[in-house]
Structures are given as structure tokens and as C-alpha cells.
Design a protein that fits this description.
- The chain has strands at residues 3-7, 10-12, 18-25, 33-39, 46-51, 58-60, 68-73, 78-83, 92-99, 118-119, 123-127.
- By secondary structure, it is mainly beta.
- Strand 4 (33-39) and strand 5 form a beta hairpin.
Length: 129
């Protein structure tokens, strides 16, 4: 059974950077598309970024495009989300998730939490002065 553990969250000033990691065990991430999601108190969970199983597609929500970068290192069985130019509205718990059978789906589907099968417990990111 695939298990995912996020790390790298913390407190950062506006304009700062963090790198989140999603480490997998129990299976290889090579079989899965990986999505990053976030949820702030009182708000719906939203898709932030995804990377396809093949790595040929990367997808970003409009709110983070140009600031966040998703990548995968299959040799380390880890997916990363690099956060730059952080804003207070980025404050949330960030989750990584793995999904199967997502090849060929429209981009919107890879930011849909319902498409993902395995989830980590999240890592909090707080952006504050």
C-alpha cells in the first residue's frame, strides 16, 4: 500500500520560499500522477499543482502559476513543490496525493481531489509578517 509523507512546511515571511517534499513508501511513485492540494481554515480544499505519471505534464492553479514549481525524482521516490514569492493567502495545510489512471484526462481533472487515491497527512505553511 502506498504511503505518502509531506514535509518542509513552516513559517515564512511574505516573499519568502519553501520547498515541500512528498516522500513515498510501499510502492514506487513512478506508477502515479501526483497532485498537491491545500486547505485553509473555512475554505474548500483546492488543487494547487499536479505532475503526470510520465512527468510530461505539469499543471498549476492560476493563483500559483509562475510562483510554484512541481517536480519529481523517481530515483528518490519523492515529489517536490517549490514555493517562491509566498503570499499570506498561500497559508494552508498542504497535502500531496497519488492517483492512477489519469493519463489523457484534461488538466482540470488533475487538480480534482476526487481523482486521487492516496493521501498524506499534510504539512502546514504559514505566510505572515
Amino acid at each position: 500500500q502506498l504511503q505518502l509523507v509531506e514535509s518542509g512546511g513552516g513559517l515564512v515571511h511574505p516573499g519568502g520560499s519553501l520547498r515541500l517534499s512528498c516522500a513515498a513508501s510501499g510502492s514506487t511513485l513512478d506508477y502515479y500522477a501526483i497532485g498537491w492540494f491545500r486547505q485553509a481554515p473555512g475554505k474548500e480544499r483546492e488543487g494547487v499543482s499536479s505532475i503526470s505519471q510520465s512527468g510530461t505534464r505539469t499543471i498549476y492553479a492560476d493563483s500559483v502559476k509562475g510562483r510554484f514549481t512541481v517536480s519529481r525524482d523517481n530515483a528518490k521516490n519523492t515529489v517536490y513543490l517549490q514555493l517562491h514569492n509566498l503570499k499570506p493567502e498561500d497559508t494552508a495545510i498542504y497535502y500531496c496525493a497519488a492517483g492512477i489512471g489519469l493519463s489523457g484526462l484534461p488538466n482540470d481533472h488533475l487538480l480534482d481531489a476526487r481523482r486521487f487515491d492516496f493521501w498524506g497527512k499534510g504539512t502546514p505553511v504559514t505566510v505572515s509578517s
